[in-house]
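FW: tagging you since you asked about this chain on Friday. Here's the raw sequence from the shared folder, copied in full. Didn't touch anything.
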Amino acid sequence: MRLFLDASVLLAAAGSAKGASRFVFEKAADHGWRLLTSAYCVEETERNARKPGPKAAPYWRTALLPDLTLVPTELAFDKALVFPKAKDRPVLLSALGAGADALLTLDESDFHKVIGAQVYGLQVRSPGQFLIEQREAGLL
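HL: got it, structure written out here
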């Protein structure tokens, strides 16, 4: 399964050892999840890496970043897409362009209309929602 992680998930994984975002990283290899992100999300994570605490930036760079596969940042899509938040449109488009199965985000304010839904077959979930669905399906 190909999981696209936005910057909010990357920051949460860097800042907390106990949350669902970190759990996704810890269990990715065991479950065959390929963790994807774009340079756009990496740049946003780098800008904000100190916000979760003093250990977050070093952990991000040494433990999390190496586990990610970078995909191109997409700015255009060949199908109609109405998504009101311009700053997060590249996240959604990059996930679609990479052929991800799911986009994991904690940014409920910007993705509120699509969290829990699908956009052209792409599931949009919080890490917690994704993990619960995996467990309910007997995959976790």
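FW: The longest helix spans residues 20-31.
HL: agreed, and The longest strand covers residues 34-38.
FW: great, closing this out.
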